[in-house]
């Protein structure tokens, strides 16, 4: 009887060599004509200085710089003179406005010092508040307030550019045989347009680094980085749900326990000091998230704007929570019933997308949450660019709508119904990509990652592991039975471990 190691190698052994998108993706091949055509067989051997990591990192920095240029009209005048011009030029950013609005110009300490105005404390998670405060320390507190705000935005842009490079490099290294998929992140137009609207790139970078650590089978490091990401933005904690279901199906409880412990401890280390000594300020993020009404970008706004009796905040909070929980349960069922265990990145993308689709607000920079997950889940240029086109349309739509609402009788921009169509386009693009990912899960032979011979390159200990528990007779359980003996396992049953489970 063959050993577990040799059997797993025969079942999941990937095809040799890195994947060349210009050879396997028709859209990538067509686009490559701009730079000389598809890569030759020696292009990816790594013998020159131009390795995939360096190329992708430089492209990401270049695109980030183009995003800064796109904000130039606001940098020079629109942030300071006239509300509508920063919208008509689509260069709005929260960063310069919150420099003074959240007390950084006055040297106030986030969470500890109370603010004047409608917002009593900084309404961001603690690690993001630390990021904002560090940028304030690096900002010259001299000259006019406009000069200081320009400096504050530029300092934050430099720090966020590092985050953007980290994200691109992590995606390159997560799928070792598909390093050039990182170009999807680096070249994503919505990524460049929204990178400096807010501070979301910090959480995205930590999440991308966590995904890389999981792919390297470093469960504890994954948990620590995910806990830090959750201390910067709430959405990264959602990744623990898919990981729980996949580890359940694979019987990898110890690794999940390490990841969970690392996440909890890291989150507590960041949050407990502020919770203990500035509890009112610490709660502000959660109070604000609960109490805010229906806002931009959500299907709830379309409902509210077309109803004579808009839904109340309590109703929206309750129903939105119910909807996202139902989506999560559906994703869990998909993971347990699928003919082959889904890849971690696929489920991670689906849960974050479900949260975005059902939430009561969708700020344009939230697309940053999905970009690296989308690349890892569905590295297909056509589908990715269709989704990005929808997000760019929404990016332009929200600014044109705000221009319309702030330009008075001039009515410059996009009226309400036009903005509702922009929201619908964003929702449709996200649903489209979700549907493609679900199809790949139900039909693994359509998954471009698995077509190349890989199983789950971002899955770490899940990569190539046999199932330990399934709902239904899955193809993977039949594969297990064929190589380890015994009949396929039926609905809700446990699959016997292979002879040497430690070797897997």
UniProtKB/TrEMBL annotation:
Chain residue ranges for the region called Disordered: 1-24, 485-504
A single cellular component GO annotation: plasma membrane
GO molecular function, one term: hexosyltransferase activity
Polar residues bias (residue ranges): 1-10
Keyword set, alphabetical order: Cell membrane, Membrane, Transferase, Transmembrane, Transmembrane helix
Topology versus the membrane: Multi-pass membrane protein
Protein localization: Cell membrane
Main location per the UniProt record: membrane
Membrane spanning stretches: 49-69, 151-172, 184-214, 220-247, 259-279, 315-338, 344-363, 384-404
Family: Belongs to the glycosyltransferase 87 family.
Name of the featured protein: Membrane protein
Species: Streptomyces spiralis
């Amino acid at each position: 009887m063959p050993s577990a190691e040799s059997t797993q190698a025969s079942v999941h052994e990937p095809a040799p060599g890195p994947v060349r998108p210009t050879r396997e993706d028709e859209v990538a091949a067509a686009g490559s004509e701009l730079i000389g055509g598809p890569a030759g067989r020696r292009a990816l051997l790594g013998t020159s200085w131009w390795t995939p990591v360096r190329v992708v990192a430089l492209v990401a920095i270049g695109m980030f710089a183009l995003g800064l240029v796109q904000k130039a009209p606001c940098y020079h005048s629109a942030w300071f003179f006239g509300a509508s011009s920063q919208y008509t030029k689509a260069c709005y950013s929260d960063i310069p406005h919150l420099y003074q609005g959240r007390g950084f110009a006055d040297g106030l300490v986030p969470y500890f010092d109370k603010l004047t105005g409608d917002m009593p404390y900084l309404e961001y998670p603690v690690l993001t508040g630390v990021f904002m405060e560090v940028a304030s320390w690096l900002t010259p507190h001299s000259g006019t307030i406009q000069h200081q705000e320009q400096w504050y935005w530029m300092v934050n842009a430099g720090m966020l550019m590092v985050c953007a490079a980290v994200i691109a490099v992590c995606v390159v290294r997560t799928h070792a045989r598909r390093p050039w998929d990182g170009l999807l992140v680096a070249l994503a137009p919505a990524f460049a347009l929204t990178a400096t609207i807010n501070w979301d790139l910090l959480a995205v970078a930590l999440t991308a680094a966590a995904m890389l650590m999981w792919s390297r089978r470093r469960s504890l490091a994954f948990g620590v980085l995910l806990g830090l990401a959750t201390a910067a933005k709430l959405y990264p904690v959602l990744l623990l749900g898919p990981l729980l279901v996949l580890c359940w199906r694979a019987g990898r409880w110890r690794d999940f326990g390490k990841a969970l412990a690392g996440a909890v401890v890291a989150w507590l280390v960041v949050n407990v000091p502020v919770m203990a000594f500035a509890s009112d300020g610490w709660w502000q993020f959660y109070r604000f998230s609960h109490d805010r009404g229906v806002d931009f970008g959500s299907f709830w706004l379309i409902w509210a704007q077309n109803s004579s009796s808009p839904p109340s905040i309590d109703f929206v909070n309750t129903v939105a929570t119910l909807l996202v929980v139902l989506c999560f349960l559906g994703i869990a069922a998909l993971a347990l019933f699928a003919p082959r265990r889904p890849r971690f990145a696929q489920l991670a993308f689906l849960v974050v997308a479900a949260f975005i689709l059902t939430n009561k607000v969708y700020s344009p920079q939230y697309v940053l949450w999905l970009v690296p997950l989308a690349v890892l889940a569905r590295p297909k240029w056509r589908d990715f660019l269709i989704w990005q086109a929808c997000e760019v349309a929404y990016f332009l739509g929200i600014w044109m709508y705000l221009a319309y609402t702030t330009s008075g009788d001039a009515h410059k921009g996009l009226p309400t119904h036009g903005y509702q169509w922009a929201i619908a386009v964003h929702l449709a693009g996200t649903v489209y990509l979700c549907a493609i990912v679900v199809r790949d899960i139900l039909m693994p032979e359509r998954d471009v990652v698995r077509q190349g011979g890989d199983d789950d390159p971002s899955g770490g200990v899940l990569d190539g592991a046999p199932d330990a528990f399934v709902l239904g007779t899955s193809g993977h359980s039949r594969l297990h039975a064929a190589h380890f003996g015994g009949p396929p396992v039926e609905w809700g049953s446990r699959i016997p471990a292979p002879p040497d489970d430690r070797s897997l």
